[in-house]
Design goal:
Number of strands: 12
Strand order of the largest sheet: 6-7-8-3-9-10-12-11
Largest sheet: 8 strands, mixed
Helix content: 25-40%
Oligomer: single chain
Shape: globular
Number of helices: 10
Mean pLDDT: 89
Radius of gyration: 21 Å
């Protein structure tokens, strides 16, 4: 069975052409390979600017890859024609970070939810459509009495529920959620996360979930990929990653997460920078206190070290922490 999303050796470089001198280039994604399994949630975590949102844009067809291949529902996204891409939109939908800016302020909720149905020619019968829209709103915890209202009349959490309802209007198989709760209050975040978890279970969705919050990723995701400077440095099942992190960067991120259950006993691994290591083969070497001379020469490779657990570290200072079953 074909995986819902497959990414192989993906590169993305932004280029700015200049009249004089060399063109300006900014590599954003570097040799990304990922697979989203059916009915799974794959979390992408990492610092701001590491390439998480750009990866989603390439997957959605908003940006073209510089090199590599991206398949969604068995189709290579970058080579699809306009008509084929329209068909793919029925399979793959997106929920953006800011619910207010992703909703047209001049449209009512009814118009917002009807727009994807109009584009794809679905539910043309007025009575059938009205019933469908009421059921769609109910599925995200909103009353059908809100259909005539405008986005500015809602709270942030309600707007995000409307965005989720719009994404579900075409009954997609794949949902791309780009930090959908980061702009919301903590209590509202919990409500939206519970809603996404319930929807995923009921509709058997496969989901790519972008976040910088490890607590959110642990709650919702089945698998987690950790990104650093446009590369995947570690990939593992969620619980395995939390119980047995293997990359120093992953360890640093986990050490920075506040805990009410226990005091912070270890310092974050990233404490200073070593500029002389900037051009080393390992991209994390300039911030890693465990770096050795071989990190300057050994090519960057993401290797499977345990079943379904891959890490791109030639030193692996935490390798002895693997727990036996």
């Amino acid at each position: 069975m074909t995986a819902p999303v497959q990414i192989k050796n993906l590169f993305k470089t932004y280029t700015r052409r200049r009249w004089l001198g060399k063109n300006w280039e900014k590599p954003v994604l570097k040799d990304i390979s990922l697979t989203l399994e059916e009915n799974h949630v794959l979390g992408l975590v990492g610092e701001s600017g590491c390439g998480k949102s750009t990866l989603c844009k390439v997957l959605l067809g908003i940006e073209k890859p510089t090199a590599g291949q991206v398949w969604a529902d068995g189709k290579e996204v970058a080579v699809l024609s306009k008509s084929e891409f329209k068909k793919l939109r029925r399979v793959m939908q997106v929920v953006y970070q800011d619910p207010y800016s992703s909703l047209d302020p001049r449209m009512t909720v009814r118009q917002i939810l009807s727009e994807p149905l109009d584009i794809h020619g679905l539910k043309k019968n007025p009575q059938e459509r009205n019933t469908f829209l009421k059921e769609l709103l109910a599925s995200v915890g909103l009353s059908d009495s809100l259909l005539g209202r405008y986005p500015h009349e809602f709270s942030g959490g309600q707007r995000q529920r409307i965005c989720i309802a719009r994404a579900l209007a075409l009954n997609p198989k794949i949902l791309v959620a780009d930090e959908p709760v980061s702009a919301l209050d903590v209590s509202v975040q919990a409500q939206i996360l519970n809603l996404l978890k319930e929807i995923k279970k009921e509709r058997h969705l496969s989901m790519i979930f972008v976040t910088h919050d490890f607590a959110v990723a642990r709650f919702l995701c089945d698998d987690i990929a950790v990104m650093y400077q446009g590369r995947i440095v570690e990939r593992a099942p969620a619980e395995e990653l939390f119980e047995n992190p293997q990359h120093p960067y992953t360890k640093a991120l986990l050490a920075a997460v506040p805990s009410v259950c226990a005091p912070q006993t270890e310092e974050a691994v990233v404490s200073q920078e070593w500029p002389e290591r900037k051009d080393w083969a390992c991209p994390f070497a300039a911030r890693c206190p465990y770096a050795q001379e071989k990190c300057a020469q050994k090519p960057f490779e993401l290797n499977e070290i345990f079943p379904r657990h891959a890490c791109a570290c030639g030193v692996r200072p935490f390798a002895t922490e693997k727990k036996s079953a």
